[in-house]
């Protein structure tokens, strides 16, 4: 719970990976509107240029530094280079707040995985953020910048199900990292936040659904989802309030409260209610998911035969 | 109600829930019996892996232990032979590095040969190591090595094992070994907890997905295990982490192995080894199938009160360490001027 000052992005340099689309861009816009200096980082030059134009429209004052940088941040070297480039307009001073929105999902069946696809999954769900956190923390510590690191994980870090075996490990891993750093970075007065959004309606989501197993699509049929703007607004609010775990919507809140363990909670009162509700609701929901999976067996074995995994 | 019916009704009202509760615990399904089953144990030449292998041999299973070091494997094999129950038991050791798909595939193939090509019935992934260090001293390479040692060492073998079981129609078991540091984390474990959390993420996905194949998934979350690995770990562990863990207890590999086997026999998904583990398990379960909703309620309530208090004391210890830590960073040349 936070009775102190709300975090104000005005005049602060915010560094956003995955910043040219989806949640990253939506966050960049909110921060720009509120007077922050914003650096967006992504790989695709064209998308970055288009994103920068949109960002300019959100400019709040003439003094703001709004930039775009084309780098692949899923390596320590790439992240270091991106941070160095972004620090140049500031005389070498590193960003104060890192919003790590880089990531992607490619759900598929476990038995169809290989070492390569598992490594790829971990690359896009975990390493894409971990290395930037590493490079960013080191700079903040060296320069004495008491900054913030904001990870973007997923509700699939609170639970998992059929189809997400290449994705959940990385998203759970992000939580593991955030939990450790939330403790350790107190040595440097660096704050850690981690957001757990549900389905986000982005171009990435369309891509994901092209190859998603049919049983996973079926289970998710009745799920809602959020727009990138909604997720970004939730993250912004959570960071301002000093929340460690940030969730948006009652499903996220229920999962958060039911899996918190020793993670610092934002409101012990609300969490007690959500956890009590979750104690009844989540097992019931889980049973329906299990039942749907079991119903799918025959169709799945047909699929395995058709793709040659099993003999006819 | 007539007074003569009241007493029996009260007794029934008190006894019946207890009977139902107990019967749910013991009679819902047959206990899993390792006798005659082929059990494949990675990290099987020392620590909890070896202790599990010994236990399985004692219960009449066929056991294949896998590790890298040939010498340790030979010693371990000799230890297993001491506990042989029947001459039919196939007890073997295989030297392979399982932190790759190729290594895991070779190990599983080799182990299946002694069984006419049939893959093992139960896989125990005890391979893993811990190298706690400060975050600001990490590099990409060290992070990858640790992810490989914690997550990779189990995931790739699980991949190979699953494929074989599905292809061969073996309705087997996968047993992952995570850690309480897969439920929470603290200073020093920034490259260990991600891997241990990742194992949980995998187990959660597979526990759901494997209802397609009738393959069971179990995952153990032990605390400190007094093993050779633990000695190694403490040599490099940051002082602040050691300080926080000062008052922690721990378990012997034998105790952990027994608890894991008991948990598997009872059909538990998450298996914890002591009171603290139970509290963390109950407080982080979310939608993960619980073993007992009644006992978890108790542990969950304890956790809701005790864990934040414990966490605050850990944070206080970290904060009080700030000056000493910055001195350490200056000595290592990570920061320069006096602050």
From TrEMBL, chain A:
Enzyme class: oxidoreductase
Role summary: Catalyzes the reduction of 3'-oxosphinganine (3-ketodihydrosphingosine/KDS) to sphinganine (dihydrosphingosine/DHS), the second step of de novo sphingolipid biosynthesis.
Catalytic reaction list: sphinganine + NADP(+) = 3-oxosphinganine + NADPH + H(+)
One GO cellular component term noted in the UniProt record for this chain: endoplasmic reticulum membrane
SUPFAM superfamilies: NAD(P)-binding Rossmann-fold domains (SSF51735)
Keywords from the UniProt entry: Endoplasmic reticulum, Lipid metabolism, NADP, Oxidoreductase, Sphingolipid metabolism
A Pfam cross-reference name: adh_short
Organism for this UniProt entry: Trametes coccinea (strain BRFM310) (Pycnoporus coccineus)
MF-aspect GO terms: 3-dehydrosphinganine reductase activity
Pathway given in the UniProt record: Lipid metabolism; sphingolipid metabolism; Sphingolipid metabolism
CDD domains: KDSR-like_SDR_c
Entry's localization field: Endoplasmic reticulum
GO BP, sorted A to Z: 3-keto-sphinganine metabolic process; sphingolipid biosynthetic process
E.C. number: 1.1.1.102
Superkingdom of origin: Eukaryota
Name of the featured protein: 3-dehydrosphinganine reductase
From TrEMBL, chain B:
UniProtKB keywords: Coiled coil, Endoplasmic reticulum, Lipid metabolism, Membrane, NADP, Oxidoreductase, Sphingolipid metabolism, Transmembrane, Transmembrane helix
GO molecular function, one term: 3-dehydrosphinganine reductase activity
E.C. number: 1.1.1.102
Subcellular locations according to the entry: Endoplasmic reticulum
Residue ranges of the TM segments: 6-27
Single GO biological process annotation from the record: 3-keto-sphinganine metabolic process
GO cellular component annotations of the record: endoplasmic reticulum membrane
Keyword Endoplasmic reticulum attached: yes
Domain of life, source organism: Eukaryota
Chief site of localization: endoplasmic reticulum
Top-level class of the enzyme under EC nomenclature: oxidoreductase
Residue runs in coiled coils: 63-90
Record field: catalytic activity: sphinganine + NADP(+) = 3-oxosphinganine + NADPH + H(+)
Pathway the protein acts in: Sphingolipid metabolism; Lipid metabolism; sphingolipid metabolism
Known role: Catalyzes the reduction of 3'-oxosphinganine (3-ketodihydrosphingosine/KDS) to sphinganine (dihydrosphingosine/DHS), the second step of de novo sphingolipid biosynthesis.
The protein's name: 3-dehydrosphinganine reductase
């Amino acid at each position: 719970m936070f009775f102190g000052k709300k975090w104000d992005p005005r005049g602060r340099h915010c560094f956003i990976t995955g910043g040219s689309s989806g949640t990253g861009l939506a966050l960049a816009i909110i921060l720009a509107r509120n007077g922050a200096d914003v650096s967006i980082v992504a790989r695709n030059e064209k998308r970055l240029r288009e994103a920068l134009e949109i960002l300019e429209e959100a400019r709040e004052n003439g003094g703001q530094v709004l930039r775009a940088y084309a780098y692949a941040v899923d390596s320590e070297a790439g992240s270091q280079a991106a941070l160095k480039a972004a620090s140049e307009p500031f005389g070498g001073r590193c960003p104060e707040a890192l919003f790590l929105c880089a990531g992607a999902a490619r759900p598929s069946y476990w038995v169809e995985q290989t070492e390569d696809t598992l490594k790829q999954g971990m690359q896009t769900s975990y390493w894409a953020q971990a290395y930037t956190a590493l490079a960013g923390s080191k700079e903040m510590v060296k320069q004495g910048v008491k900054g913030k690191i904001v990870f973007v994980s997923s509700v699939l870090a609170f639970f998992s199900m059929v189809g997400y075996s290449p994705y959940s490990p990385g998203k759970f891993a992000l939580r593991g990292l955030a939990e450790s750093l939330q403790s350790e970075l107190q040595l440097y007065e660096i704050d850690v936040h981690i957001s757990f959004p549900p389905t986000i309606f982005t171009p990435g989501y369309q891509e994901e659904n092209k190859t998603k197993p049919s049983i996973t699509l079926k289970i998710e049929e009745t799920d809602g989802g959020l727009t990138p703007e909604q997720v970004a607004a939730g993250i912004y609010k959570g960071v301002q309030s000093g929340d460690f775990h940030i969730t948006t919507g009652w499903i996220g809140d229920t999962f958060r409260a039911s899996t918190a363990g020793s993670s610092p909670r934002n409101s012990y009162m609300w969490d007690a209610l959500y956890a009590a509700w979750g104690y009844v609701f989540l097992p019931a929901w889980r049973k329906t998911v299990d039942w749907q999976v079991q119903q799918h067996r025959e169709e799945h074995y047909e699929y395995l035969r058709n793709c040659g995994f099993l003999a006819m | 109600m007539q007074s003569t019916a009241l007493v029996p009704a009260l007794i029934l009202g008190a006894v019946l829930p207890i009977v139902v509760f107990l019967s749910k615990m013991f009679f819902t399904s047959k206990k899993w019996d390792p006798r005659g089953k082929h059990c494949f144990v990675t990290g099987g030449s020392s620590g909890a892996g070896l202790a599990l292998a010994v236990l399985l041999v004692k219960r009449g299973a066929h056991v294949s232990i896998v590790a890298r070091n040939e010498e340790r494997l030979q010693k371990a094999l000799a230890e297993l032979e001491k506990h042989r129950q029947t001459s039919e038991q196939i007890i073997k050791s295989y030297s392979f590095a399982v932190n790759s798909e190729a290594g895991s595939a070779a190990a599983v193939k080799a182990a299946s040969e002694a069984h006419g090509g049939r893959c093992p019935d139960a896989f125990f992934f005890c391979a893993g190591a811990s190298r706690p260090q400060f975050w600001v001293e990490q590099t990409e390479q060290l992070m990858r090595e640790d992810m490989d040692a914690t997550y990779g060492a189990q995931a790739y073998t699980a991949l190979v094992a699953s494929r074989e079981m599905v292809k061969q129609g073996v309705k087997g078991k996968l047993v992952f070994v995570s850690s309480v540091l897969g439920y929470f984390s603290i200073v020093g474990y920034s490259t260990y907890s991600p891997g241990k959390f990742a194992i949980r993420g995998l187990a959660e996905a597979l526990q759901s997905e494997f209802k397609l194949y009738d393959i069971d998934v179990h995952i153990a979350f032990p605390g400190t295990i007094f093993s050779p690995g633990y000695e190694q770990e403490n040599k490099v562990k940051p002082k602040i982490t050691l300080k926080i863990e000062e008052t922690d207890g721990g378990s012997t590999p034998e105790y952990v192995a027994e608890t894991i086997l008991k948990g598997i026999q009872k059909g538990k998904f998450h298996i914890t080894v002591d009171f603290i583990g139970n509290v963390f398990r109950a407080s982080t379960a979310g939608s993960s199938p619980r073993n007992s909703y009644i006992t978890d309620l108790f542990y969950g309530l304890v956790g809701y009160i005790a864990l934040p208090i414990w966490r605050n004391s850990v944070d206080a210890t970290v904060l009080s360490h700030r000056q000493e830590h910055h001195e350490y960073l200056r000595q290592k040349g990570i920061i320069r001027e006096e602050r």
